[in-house]
């Protein structure tokens, strides 16, 4: 708890316009799972006055499902978009039984977003799927922003999926506020696959002067990987934690980075027996990139994804702390 925001259910980190949460993935037995991010989000949902939008690759956390049904019963419009692969979950059937319309992408690529918009003002986004395992077993981040401008981007994305049934690379690139300032802090907000995100990230990586820290569930994209290797070769410190599953394959950047033979390039496989699900890059402890977007080709080329880039050392510091926790748990 305290200022770190590191405990599930602990006090969040942040300023008036954002709160940053990280899970504490101890993965207790299901009957002992309480006080987690699922409950924090459910409590926030219950404050809704006008409308909720939720785009969720995977949605099964009972507190969140319960809160959405309560809102529907109060007459508050609830719009849900999920991935076709998860359409048959009991939780989605329950939402539909209770009168909530759930739209799916109906394609093999993923509707991989994990975001919520409350009253066109508050946005939740990050790596967290709205699931029990996501909240209690996996390393995840979720950030709550208070910003009508940022919310307008996510509302536009929701409209395109929910109303227009438009997904993936052919969906319109129509976020109104991709560059925005909140309380004097600069942010960027991008949506894949209508936008190619990998070149945007490579451009930021190319500008790193001292240090790049990353936590990657999946890291296979060449544009991002080669940019990082080039900075490491130029003497920039690069430290990263890979989700262990899949990281030993030829597609992952883990083997190449591990064997690069550069003292300033250090990578580890994560130490959580479940899933290290972060998709985070921190540049010079000043810029944080986070969201649903894995550093992979499918995220870049096919899926529906979102990222937020925050240019602020105070914001970045909370993610640096979380990196330290995940790094220390990882096998050297």
Radius of gyration: 19 Å
CATH C-level name of the largest domain? Alpha Beta
| Distance between the ends | 27 Å
Low-confidence stretches: 1-10
Average pLDDT, rounded to a whole number, is 95
Helix and strand succession?
EEHEHEHEEEHEHEEHEHEHEEEHEH
Tally of distinct domains: 2
How would you characterize this protein structure?
With 332 residues, the chain is α+β, with helices and mostly antiparallel strands. It has 2 domains: 13-177, Endonuclease, Chain A (2-Layer Sandwich), CATH 3.30.870; 188-329, Endonuclease Chain A (Endonuclease, Chain A). It is built from 10 helices and 16 strands. It has helices at residues 37-46, 62-73, 90-97, 132-136, 148-162, 198-206, 222-233, 254-258, 297-301, 313-329; strands at 13-15, 18-22, 52-56, 78-82, 102-104, 114-118, 122-126, 141-146, 179-182, 185-192, 211-216, 237-242, 265-269, 279-283, 287-291, 305-311. Strands 1-2-8-7-6-3-4-5 form an 8-stranded mixed β-sheet, sandwiched between helices. An 8-stranded mixed β-sheet has the order 9-10-16-15-14-11-12-13, sandwiched between helices. α1 (37-46) packs parallel to α2. The radius of gyration is 19 Å and the shape is globular. It starts with 12 loop residues before the first strand and ends with a helix. Residues 1-10 have low confidence and may be disordered.
């Amino acid at each position: 708890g305290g200022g770190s925001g590191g405990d599930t259910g602990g006090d969040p980190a942040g300023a008036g316009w954002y709160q940053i949460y990280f899970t504490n993935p101890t993965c207790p037995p299901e009957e002992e799972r309480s006080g987690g991010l699922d409950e924090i989000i459910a409590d926030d949902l219950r404050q809704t006055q006008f409308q909720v939008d939720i785009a969720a690759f995977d949605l099964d956390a009972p507190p969140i499902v319960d809160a959405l049904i309560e809102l529907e019963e109060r007459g508050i419009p609830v719009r849900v978009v999920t991935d076709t692969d998860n359409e048959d979950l009991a939780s989605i059937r329950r939402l539909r039984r209770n009168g909530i319309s759930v739209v799916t992408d109906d394609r093999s690529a993923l509707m991989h977003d994990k975001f919520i918009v409350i009253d066109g003002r508050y946005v939740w986004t990050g790596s967290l799927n709205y699931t029990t395992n996501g909240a209690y077993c996996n390393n995840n981040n979720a950030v709550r922003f208070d910003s009508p401008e940022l919310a307008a981007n996510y509302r536009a994305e929701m409209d395109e999926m929910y109303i227009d049934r438009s997904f993936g690379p052919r969906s319109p690139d129509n976020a109104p506020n991709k560059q925005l300032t909140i309380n004097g802090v600069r942010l960027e907000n991008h949506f894949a696959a209508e936008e190619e995100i990998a070149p945007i990230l490579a451009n930021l990586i190319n500008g790193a002067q001292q240090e790049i820290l990353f936590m990657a569930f999946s890291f296979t994209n060449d544009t991002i990987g080669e940019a990082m290797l080039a900075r490491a070769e130029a003497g920039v410190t690069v430290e990263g934690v890979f989700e262990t599953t899949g990281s030993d394959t030829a597609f992952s950047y883990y083997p190449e980075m591990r064997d690069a033979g550069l003292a300033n390039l250090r990578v580890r496989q994560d130490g959580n027996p479940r899933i290290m699900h972060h998709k985070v890059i921190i540049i010079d402890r000043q810029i944080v990139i986070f969201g649903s977007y894995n550093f992979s080709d499918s995220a870049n080329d096919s899926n529906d994804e979102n990222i937020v880039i925050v240019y602020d050392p105070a914001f970045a510091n909370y993610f640096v702390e979380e990196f330290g926790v995940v790094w220390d748990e990882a096998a050297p």
